[in-house]
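Assemble and predict.
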Amino acid sequence: MSEPVDSDLSASPEACADPDASTGSADPSDFVSVAATTFTTVFLAELGDKTQLAALLLSAESGRPGVVFAGAALALICSSLVGVLLGRWLAAVLPAQRLERISGVLMVSLGLFLGGQASLGLLRPVIDLPNP
Amino acid sequence: MQLPLLASTFLTVFVAELGDKTQLTIVTISGTSSNTLAVFLGSAGALVLASLLGALAGGSLSSVIPADALQLAASLGFLVIGLRLILRSGTDAP
């Protein structure tokens, strides 16, 4: 399963056509690759996330997917805003090197935990074969 | 307007997301990237699209998406970002 390589994104010239797209960071293609990396990771994590079912069930019960989507979308935008602001605050109070190391270790352990859970989930049908 | 339904969905999803691994990912990426707007747009866009799929498909989505396979792909993404951060923290000037 090839990892979504976003290096070709930064090669595309039109990515830096819009001057005000780059906020502060000189390199707009960095903007695109950061946004793309974040999008891919968060999207995969969220789609595979069991808690996503909370919104699904509400939507199925209520029969008003439009309202459920509005509520869920608003909540998710607020929660990602909280996450982004928290990240910025951490970056302001912690030395960059330490924050990077802590974040790196956190992400690796999260990846190992999730990967382990997922592979167990995938292997479960193989493991408990119905004994005759 | 279905305010009670809107409010209950908002609260359910917001509380479910608090401290969720998705939010941890967003905190980590935004804390270690100078591009805050890019991180916000990327994460908010991903979450909204994921919930759009969820709301549209109603209960049937869970039978359609291979949650474990997606989780495995996401975990690879976490590992890549995490290792890149650890390597970068090693090369930074102390």
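Chain A touches chain B through 88 residues (CB under 8 Å).
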